[in-house]
Amino acid sequence: MKGIKKLLTGILAGAMAATLAFGTGSATQVLAADNQQLSAPASTGTVTVNGCIPGEKYSLYKLLDFESASATGGVYTIKTSSPWWSFINGKADIIDGEPTGNAGGVLTLTKVTDSTDTYYVSWTAGAVTTDESRKEALDDEAGIQAFAKAAMAYAAGNDGILGTDDDKVSPVTSDTAGNVSTEGQKPTVVFRDLSLGYYLVGSSAGALVSLDTTNTAAQVNEKNDIPTSEKKVEEDSTGNYGDKDDADIGQVVKYRSTVTIPAGGAKNVVFYDKMTSSLTFSGINNVVVKNGTTVLNDGTANASATVTADGSVVDADGNTVPVTFVVTFDSAYTESLTAETVITIEYSATLNENAIIYGKETSSAFGGGNDNESMITYGNAGKSKWDWTRTYTYPVDIKKVDPAKNVLPGAEFNLALNTDTNRTNLFKFTQVNAGSATAAAEYRVDPNGTVTTLVTPKSGLIHITGLDADVYSLKETKAPDGYNLLATPIVFTIDSDTDTNQGDNGSSQAVTVKYTKDNLEYTGALEVENKTGVLLPSTGGIGTTIFYIIGGILIVAGVAYFIVRRKANAQ
């Protein structure tokens, strides 16, 4: 074996004195020298993966067998019957001294003396690096990363997902990382009682590690960050995005979710979105997925993201949840992202007639209001928690009374925004019920409704639902019989803190709301008072003065006529 030059130089190496992580592939690097080989005693080893991603499945694959050891490393072999032979052979640059012509070949295979099916494996000198000063060290990070990725893709088979039934190569063993400890410590996965050899840790780590007589306890540090997702909703009054907003029924609500891919890339990233029944999704054709200004779901065969309607996901709590739409990212694209990348997903929904009105929410958690939530899955089994937003819509109560606070039926009103001074865009409603002597007449905002006139029943009460936080003008168009029509509209305000209080506590998106009239806050119903009687000129007008003036004019005219007539007769 002395004729084999620097066996397993670079990534096919010994002791785990240091672990280098590069996105989705990593390896340890120690040189094996041309010194005396030592036979390997029977032994087993362990591989420990530290800082695991919670919920990630880690699978261990044995690529090469341990043959013998030196003081600084190990010598490894592979048989042609190995399930990894096709991969190793395909990565061979030289076999028994002859170039293979394999594109991207980085390994040298040398048949073991007197063997027909066993080869020594070494890294071809200069196959990756072009830096002459580094050709002996061969610590080319890009080459190691590419080799680890290629090994994982080979193990996974056609779908690129390790740990499934159709994997091309079965793992020696697998384990799923647990949760982060209460102290914030990431979980650890330990593989024990392993025969010595050269292993691939198949996960988002993609690490290459070796076990030999000089290193029977290998350590792999999972240094990859995990993809994350965040959801926001637009508050239309400001154009800002936060965790809550206000809207009228019938209003289009805009959402923006982000998926952050960590430096070094990620694989198998899928985004899931779920809306409550009070939100009508605008459809998958209106979903735009972008990296900066580049649209990823362009509908082409090579699109980097694909949007599909409906579906389901098993979330981090183990619940199977139906979803509204799904965005599936192409792994070749997300794995190629070397720098941290924020991908935006923009879409919209309409707040519909099923809207839950403020004060009627069944819960402060998701599902208790007009809510939208999203999550992602990634890697082999990684899952994020749901992130969610809430859209609020408000009621207003009107009470028609006389000066003695007796309720008045038969009053009619219309409603407009206070900025609509010409009242050209009156609110339209659907009448839910006409009310009674004890119940309010109920009207729901409906852009397609046919009702613009609100009528007080015998109870004198009107209940309106589905309003945005805004300033409104309520105009009386018909007064109750025997009462005076209000001369000017009543201006009132529904005010919330959605534009200033956007903290996301993960469990509640509460708002603070107040109603004001004439800059004074009120609670309960907005009282609208009418007075009885006829508006006579004597009250605040010119009264009988007009009659005195007219009478005076007639007297003066009469006297003048008399004087003129006498002069005419005298002549």
Mean pLDDT over all positions: 81
Beta-strand content estimate? 35-45%
Report the structural category: mainly beta
* Low-pLDDT residue spans: 1-42, 128-139, 536-541, 543-548
Helix content: under 10%
Question: What oligomeric state is this?
Answer: single chain
Major sheet description: 12 strands, mixed
What is the count of distinct domains?
4
Shape verdict: elongated
**Number of DSSP helical runs:** 4
* Measured distance between first and last alpha carbons: 160 Å
DSSP strand tally: 42
The whole-angstrom Rg is 40 Å
Give the secondary structure arrangement, pairings included.
Elements: E1 20-22, E2 25-27, E3 38-39, E4 44-50, E5 57-69, E6 74-79, H1 85-90, E7 92-95, E8 98-99, E9 107-111, E10 118-123, H2 141-156, E11 173-176, E12 189-195, E13 197-202, E14 207-211, E15 217-221, E16 228-235, E17 240-242, E18 244-246, E19 252-261, E20 270-275, E21 279-281, E22 288-291, E23 294-295, E24 305-309, E25 312-314, E26 320-322, E27 325-329, H3 331-335, E28 341-351, E29 370-378, E30 382-383, E31 387-392, E32 394-401, E33 412-417, E34 429-433, E35 441-445, E36 454-455, E37 461-467, E38 471-478, E39 490-496, E40 513-517, E41 520-522, E42 526-529, H4 545-570
Parallel strand pairs: 2-14, 4-15, 7-9, 18-31, 32-42, 35-37
Antiparallel strand pairs: 1-2, 3-5, 4-12, 5-6, 5-11, 5-13, 6-10, 7-8, 9-10, 13-14, 16-17, 16-19, 19-28, 20-27, 20-29, 21-28, 22-23, 22-28, 24-27, 25-26, 29-30, 29-31, 32-37, 33-36, 33-38, 34-35, 38-39, 39-40, 40-41
